[in-house]
Amino acid sequence: MTTRTVLAGVLVKDWAAAQDFWTTVFGRRPDEVPMHGCAEWHVAGGGFLQLVEDAGRAGASSVSLLVDDVRAERDRLVQAGVTVPEVWTVPEFIHAVTFADPEGTQVTLVEPIAPQTAADVVRALFAAYRDQDAPAATALLADDFVFTSPQDEPIGRDEWLRRCFPTADRMRSQELVDVVEVSPGEVFVRYVYELHTGARHRNTEVLTVRDGQVVETQVYFGAELA
Fold first, then answer.
1. How far apart are CA 121 and CA 192, in angstroms?
2. Are 206 and 188 in contact (CB under 8 A)?
3. What sign has the CA pseudo-torsion 154, 157, 158, 159?
4. Strand 141-149 to strand 106-112: parallel, antiparallel, or no bridges (unpaired)?
5. DSSP string, 172-183
6. Quick one: which of 183, 164, 170 has its CA closest to 118?
7. What angle do CA 31, 33, 36 make, to 5 degrees?
8. What is the dihedral of CA 131, 136, 138, 144, to 10 degrees?
9. Per-residue pLDDT tens listing for the chain (226 residues)
10. Which residue intervals of the chain are DSSP H helices?
11. Which of 27, 99, 116, 164 lies in disulfide reach of 84, CB 3.0 to 4.6 Å?
């Protein structure tokens, strides 16, 4: 069987009131009302939700809607007066929240979690360093993390956090020029930073990522820029 699109049906008793509720969920009135007792909302990709008047089976439906930001949608609905519980998460799969329409239909908003690449982990670590967010940086570093540079003997995570992490305060800005995964789990980074003194420098680093954490950083210093 080749399926071109999917129609989700929600069965309701009070068709007029149900339209108001689902207008709040979608943030707009129905895209089409082909007949009394049937209203449709169209979604990107060709699918659509159809609201159908069927008193005998109302409240027995369930529907899931994929969204870009489930927490933002939850906040929007709560502000509009809809009772929505907290978002729940299946790690590395989805963020989701489930609530009900006035007749008992179960509605689930789902935000797929995009797979995190090694380059994403490295960008997050640099952001935590720039923001001086020690809890975030600690979570991104493996217990057996090792740091080396031309000026440092190999040091572990705790020593790096004590000695190197606070040095971001010296910088006025830092720009990541290249963040490239050159082999599985191995990320090449080239960046330019400017100190509060006005001096500008270029550095390169190679970071190794394993299971969503950085396990090694190798720093190769560049020359001061004119």
1. 19
2. yes
3. positive
4. unpaired
5. EEEEEEEEEEEE
6. 183
7. 160
8. -110
9. 767 777 889 999 999 999 999 999 999 999 999 999 999 999 887 889 999 999 999 888 889 999 989 999 999 999 999 999 999 887 767 889 999 999 999 999 999 887 789 999 999 899 999 999 888 899 899 999 999 998 878 999 999 999 999 999 998 999 999 999 999 999 999 999 999 998 999 999 999 999 889 999 999 987 777 7
10. 15-26, 70-79, 118-131, 134-140, 157-163
11. 99
What is the distance between the alpha carbons of residues 171 and 160, in angstroms, rounded to a whole number? 17
Q: Residue 106 is encoded by which pair of tokens? A: 């179960």
In this structure, what token pair is assigned to residue 140? 């991104």
Domains annotated for the chain, with CATH where assigned, are 7-112 (3.10.180.10), 118-225 (3.10.450.50)
Residues 6+ apart with CB under 8 A from 94: 110, 111, 112, 113
